[in-house]
Every structure is written in C-alpha cells, then in structure tokens.
Amino acid sequence: MDNLNNPKYKYFDDKFSKQEQSYPGVQNEMTPVPDCGEESYKGSDRLTGRKALVTGGDSGIGRAAAIAYAKEGADVAISYLPDEESDAQEVKEVIEATGRKAVLLPGDLRDESFARQLVHDAAKELGGLDTLVMNAGMQQYINDIKGLKTQQLQDTFTINVFSNVWMLQEALDHLPEGGSVIITTSVQAFSPASLLADYAMTKSAQVSFIVSMAQKLGQKGIRVNGVAPGPVWTALQISGGQPPENIPEFGQNTPLQRAGQPVELSDTYVLLASDSGSYITGQVFGVTGGMPINM
Ligand code: NAD
Ligand code: MG
Q: Where is this region: Disordered (predicted)?
C-alpha cells in the first residue's frame, strides 16, 4: 500500500559507500544522490502566491524545502556558495518546471554585507518576501577541542548564528503579517557530540534565538520556528561534517536505524511556513528518526 510503509525501509537503509568531498561539497556527486523531493514530493497548493528565500537551497534540506515550496505554489529564491552552482542550476530547473519563479543568489554568508543585501535582493526579485528559511550551515568535525582552529570557530559561528541575526534584521523591512521565519537547527543543540563541539554550540544558540524572536515577533503576526533534523544524508556530512569512517553507518544508531533523506523534512518546512501552522510559533520540531530533542 503506498500510504502505509515501514519507515525503517522507506528510503535507503543500507551502508553508504565511503565518500569524501571538500567543503561545501556538491550533492550531484554523492552516492546515492540525496532525495530532495524532485520526483517524490507532491504539492497541494498550500503556499500559493507565497515568496520565500531559502539559504543553502542548492542541496540537502534547504533544497527539499525550496522544491516543496515551489510545488506548493511559492516563488523561491535560494542562496548558496558559488562552488555549488551545478546543484543550484538543478534546483532552478525543478522549480521552473512547476511554473514558479526561481531566483539564484550565490554568495558567502561569512560576508556581512552579502548576508544583509541577500534579503533585499530576494525581496526585490520576488516582488516581496513572506517566508525566510535560514538553513545554510557549516559543520566540520574535530578530533579534540585542542585541535579546534579559531578560523573554524569563527566561520561556524558566523554562518550558523551571526548570519541569522543579520538576515532577520533586514527581513523585518519586508516580512508582512502572516510571515514566517524558519531556522534549521539540529538534534546537536540538545544532544551535543564532542566531535561537533563548536557546531553544537551554534545550534543551541539558534534554538535560543528562535524562542526569543518568537516572543517579540508574535506581536507583529510573524511566526518564528525551528526544525531540528537528526542524521540526514546530505553533502554537509561527507565534506568534513563526519569522520569518513563514520559515513558507512551514518544514521544507523537512530531508533529507525537509517539516515533520513531531505524530502522527509519537506512537510515540516511547508507546515511551518503555511497558514495551517497559524498557532505554531517559538517551537522546534524534531525530524530525527527517533533521537530525542529534549534537554
Ligand atoms: P548541505 O551541505 O546540503 O546544505 C548546507 C548549505 O549551507 C550548503 O548547500 C551551502 O549552500 C550553505 N553554506 C555553507 N556554508 C556557506 C557559506 N559560507 N555561505 C553561504 N552558504 C553556505 O547540508 P544540509 O545537511 O542540508 O544542511 C542544511 C542545514 O541542516 C544546516 O544548517 C545543518 O546544520 C542542518 N542539519 C543537518 C543535518 C544533517 O544530518 N544533514 C542534521 C541536523 C542539522
Ligand atoms: Mg550545497
């Protein structure tokens, strides 16, 4: 039956082959290629006429959100690093095939002026901005805290935390009543691994930002929420996110015993952006294969 699948076996549940790329990685060179809903996600007009910016929308979880939003009727701008142009072009094709507008805005979120201008460029190209998905992120594993370089610490905090603040400040010029802000945090915010110490701190900081901004922006009729993925098969993991020897069994330590695919997060991003989520704000939704997200 198409509507009743054992979640353990619904997507790839075997060992991944060892693979490694340099940061930020491109997913069109991964085996298997992550499922971001190109074929598997079906829309049902839940975001007709909406205008969304998704950072890191070229690949992985951001790509799944961008594709789902377009299939639900939204025009979508994505940002990504210039090295990821080939992934971004694929997303553009999928969005345009739905009949929606796709806007490509490459650049580096470590650059404050780019991060700020990105929001205004997206609003200009889309003719407004009602949904901001801050999903771009950096994760580089460390073997021990002594080996953590200041450059990595700064980059991880700048991309994962500072850019969220900069972009939200600018987005307040555009977000209308009913607008939605969604931040991709992580299970690492709640169960930090020592090999991801710096990354996990940034993900906790995002949770605190989500809750504090929801308090304030609720008064304006703008909702702010987060998604906390568990282990999901994306380029981030094979480009320094995990030690290469952890890749074959990546995700198998979850209760569902496999890694998630980005498309399994699509509905959560759609719900949090859509009118159906009208009473949901200041929350973090776990999509983790069963890993707990309570502290
Ligand atoms: P991904 O590599 O497909 O996407 C991350 C994106 O971040 C990249 O595509 C890139 O465009 C963007 N990015 C990275 N550095 C950037 C920079 N300097 N400037 C601009 N953009 C930059 O991987 P993903 O797993 O889909 O990651 C999306 C989000 O999900 C991240 O915030 C990550 O922390 C979070 N997350 C992922 C997992 C997982 O298991 N994959 C688990 C929990 C949380
Ligand atoms: Mg990418």
A: 20-44
